[in-house]
Amino acid sequence: MSEHWSGERPRYGKTIKVDNGIKATSKRGDIGATWWSRRFIEVLESFGMGGRLTRGRNYARQGQVLSLSLSTSMVIALVQGSRPTPYKTRIAIKSFTGQEWQRIEHALAGKALYAAKLLAGEMPSDIESLFASLGLRLFPATQRELTMDCSCPDWEVPCKHLAATCYLLAESFDKDPFEILAWRGRGREELLDRLRMLRGSVRSAVVREEAPPLTRCLDTFWQKQTTTSINLGDPTAVVRADAVLDQFDGVPITVGRSSLADLLRPAYLALKPGD
């Protein structure tokens, strides 16, 4: 906090109500409609902040937060309290480095389901495991990984102004899961462009190096796949069992929000000659 504790708990007047603040969508009970926003609140509560967070829930629902902005590593909000000048709250987290993001992007692009969900605007349910496999954490594991401060005279962290900011931040994650990744240093468009490029490179490599057109290998299509290189000009070449699915490349056939080719590929790879 910007003012130091003088030995007595600060005394506050009546909260100044505002008409055009940001109000939480949730009117009662817990705040957070998706697993990833609830996970964020659970992380904060695991740091022993549960009771202090509750103090700001009414602030979030009453619309006392005037503005909320998120950028790499930093969330800043203005919260109207009992004084005429709104308080400024900040919640900071360390962003991932460029090299770390390269590892994350390659890992995400290497898993068709992860890439498909992100491209559809969803957060994969086990994405934390992917980050953990890279030695990284999507959500903070200790309170030391978060820096919180408020310009109010309260010495507690989080104060009710910070708590209200936390709840509205969680709801912003509900609306757009990419906000979590943007906070860690990679915005929506940049990440999606990278995933499209990486996924396209993988598909192009498969078509160019492994899969001749189906019309050239009808007689040998169901032969056992080998690990030897394939001569694209040889009509008797042995190809992968799922090569036919590469003919869908570029064709927008989906089931729900997933690519039909990605859904069928595991079944094709499991087939044996004579099945």
Task: Outline the structure in words.
The protein is an alpha+beta fold. The chain has helices at residues 35-54, 57-62, 98-109, 112-119, 127-133, 160-175, 178-183, 188-209, 260-270, and strands at 65-71, 74-79, 87-93, 146-150, 254-255, 258-259. Helix 1 (35-54) packs antiparallel against helix 6 (160-175), helix 3 (98-109) packs across helix 8 (188-209) and helix 4 crosses helix 8. 28% of the residues are buried.
Number of helices: 9
Structural class by sheet pairing and helices: alpha+beta
Separation, N- and C-terminal Cα atoms: 69 Å
Largest sheet: 4 strands, antiparallel
Task: Give the proportion of residues in helices.
Answer: 25-40%
Average pLDDT score: 79
Order of helices and strands: HHEEEHHHEHHHEEH
Radius of gyration: 26 Å
Shape: elongated
The total beta strand count reads 6
What is this entry, summarized?
The chain is built from nine helices and six strands; from the N terminus they run ααβββαααβαααββα. It is α+β, with helices and mostly antiparallel strands and 275 residues long. Residues 142-170 form the SWIM-type domain.
What are the defining features of this structure?
275 residues, alpha+beta, 4-stranded antiparallel beta sheet, two-stranded antiparallel ribbon, 9 helices, 6 strands, disordered N terminus
